[in-house]
Design the sequence.
């Protein structure tokens, strides 16, 4: 079953913060976050493993609450380049069968 | 590192013809590659898992005989859309799995836009 992301869409002014949530109905092994710009392939942002992991890079960070089967992506002091559609991808089983199920997506637009 | 290429970037073909799309991992070996399909403003839907040296595993509802997958080497997987029809028009994206310790990461190719007239 496809993970549900919220919000579906958000418009920010440059410098504002945003939170994107990803919820699954199944127990997860890992959560992967990607950003996709129109007409392009998704670009890998980060991966979080079960065990309550949190991590970040520059002004983008994420957390994974395996008990709630949820992950959140935090965008701080957003830049124009952050615009795009964000997808979470969930993995149920680690290893060679580790196929990703992508979430419903969140469209983010950053304006001046 | 972890670059994946796809060829062609776009293709326009007539109904009934077959189209082959190539996916290559340029700087790493990938025993597993994945093929996705994406319609406008929608999420990526996994079509099949391509395993080097063995048969692909198709997701439910994906026709094996229509979407032929071959993973002939550790750096190349191909998707052939046979007897394409307008409803097959879509954005096809491949990814290659980079194994790494506790987890694997999928790196995506730039995608191929298929338009069937």
Sequence:
């Amino acid at each position: 079953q496809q993970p549900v992301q919220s919000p579906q869409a958000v418009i920010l002014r440059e410098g504002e913060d945003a939170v994107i949530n990803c919820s699954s109905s199944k127990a997860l092994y890992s959560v992967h976050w990607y950003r996709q710009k129109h007409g392009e392939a998704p670009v890998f942002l980060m991966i979080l493993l079960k065990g309550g992991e949190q991590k970040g890079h520059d002004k983008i960070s994420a957390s994974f609450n395996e008990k709630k089967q949820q992950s959140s992506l935090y965008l701080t002091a957003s830049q124009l380049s952050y615009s795009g559609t964000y997808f979470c991808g969930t993995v149920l089983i680690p290893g060679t069968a580790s196929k990703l199920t992508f979430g419903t997506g969140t469209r983010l637009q950053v304006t001046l | 590192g972890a670059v994946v290429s796809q060829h062609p970037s776009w293709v326009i073909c007539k109904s009934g013809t077959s189209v082959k799309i190539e996916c290559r991992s340029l700087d790493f070996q990938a025993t597993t590659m994945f093929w996705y399909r994406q319609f406008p403003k929608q999420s990526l839907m996994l079509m099949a898992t391509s395993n080097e040296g063995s048969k692909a595993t198709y997701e439910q509802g994906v026709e094996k005989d229509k979407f032929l997958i071959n993973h002939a080497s550790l750096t190349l997987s191909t998707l052939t859309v046979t007897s394409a029809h307008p409803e097959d028009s879509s954005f096809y994206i491949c990814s290659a799995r980079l194994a790494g310790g506790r987890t694997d990461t999928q790196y995506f190719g730039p995608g191929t836009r298929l338009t069937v007239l």
About this structure: Chain A touches chain B at residues 2, 30, 32, 34, 39-44, 47, 49, 87, 89, 91, 94, 96, 98-105 (CB under 8 Å).
